[in-house]
Amino acid sequence: MRVGVLTGGGDCPGLNAVIRAVVRKGAKEYGYEFVGFRDGWKGPLEGITMPLDVSAVRGILPRGGTILGSSRTNPIKVEGGVERIERNLADLGVDALVAIGGEDTLGVATKLAEHGLPVIGVPKTIDNDLNATDYTFGFDTAVTIATEAIDRLHTTAESHHRVLVIEVMGRHAGWIALHSGMAGGANVILIPEVPFDLDQVCGWVEQRFQQQYAPIICVAEGALPKDGDLITKDTTVDAFGHVKLSGIGDWLAGAIEQRTGKESRAAVLGHIQRGGTPTAFDRVLATRFGLNAIDAVKDGDSGKMVALRGTDIVRVPLSEATGELKTVPLARYEEAAAFFG
Ligand code: F6P
């Protein structure tokens, strides 16, 4: 049995831990051989591979990024893309494919599985916005990095009596902002699911200064003002039609300064929250996903994605994971609002 492995979409801490678990268990317990596909769906589409065996995965557990490389290539948009992948897999003697990715990569996996290709999905994204799994690996690491940044911003904001806005990633879900803002004691958290009222935000800022503290505002890159549109500095879209987010942090700092007269600055965390070594939680989750994914290959359970439910790893149909985004429920946001202002 030959198993192909690929990682697609934005990279994420824990990808290497999945690859290692898939290969180690697959080789040791089932005697499988592996083919590494380079750069997401570009690999199977163009037949670009790299050797993948036990020696190739030694020492990669704590390493960030992905040894296979990644891209946002969308083979569905390429004429004859699905047939090309089918042909390349057959030519390489690949019997099953483990696709590790987020909404877009697994959306392609769903279509290929519907087409009859043997694909198993593993959910990854720092955004934690994939349905059908309680958590994705990478999220805990991103939240830990963002929380440390907020801790650091508190002391410099206090020293200068200024407003500090921290913009975090998450696309159209506010999970990273909610969790890091709560863990870091931010005074205001703004998420895409609940459009904000600028007057109310300024009210919370002034309230905070009256208590002799400097406000920290944690804003998700996809947050937007009431009656307003997404604020982004870049309008280009990727192969899956997603606009590149970021820009709300600077916009918000400017708007707050103008309205309150208080000096306001923005820190955009960007790819720092995606790079580097995964937390212990993410290493364990990624490893368990990898072990279960290779078991799914062994069982011939194509068209499924491994998922975390409570503390158990289960298998769900790929289509369940990619149909709809998992966003922050209002009740979770309302809990955090107890600390605003
Ligand atoms: O989906 C993960 C993510 O990091 C989002 O939070 C962010 O909007 C996006 O990817 C950025 O992608 P990139 O800069 O790699 O195109």
Which helices and strands appear, and what pairs or packs with what?
Elements: E1 2-7, H1 15-30, E2 33-37, H2 42-46, E3 49-52, H3 81-91, E4 96-101, H4 103-114, E5 119-123, H5 139-160, E6 163-168, H6 175-183, E7 188-190, H7 198-210, E8 216-220, H8 248-260, E9 264-268, H9 280-298, E10 304-309, E11 312-317, H10 318-322, H11 330-336
Helix pairs in contact: 1-9, 5-6, 7-8
The protein binds 6-O-phosphono-beta-D-fructofuranose.
6-O-phosphono-beta-D-fructofuranose binds next to loops.
Q: Rg to the nearest angstrom?
A: 21 Å
Tell me which CATH architecture of the largest domain applies here: 3-Layer(aba) Sandwich
Order of helices and strands: EHEHEHEHEHEHEHEHEHEEHH
CATH class of the largest domain: Alpha Beta
Number of helices: 11
Largest sheet: 7 strands, mixed
Derived from helix and strand composition plus strand pairing, the structural class reads alpha/beta
Give the fraction of residues assigned to helices: 25-40%
**Ligand types:** 6-O-phosphono-beta-D-fructofuranose
Give the strand order of the largest sheet, numbering strands 1, 2, ... along the chain: 3-2-1-4-5-10-11
CATH topology of the largest domain: Rossmann fold
* Distance between the amino and carboxyl termini: 59 Å
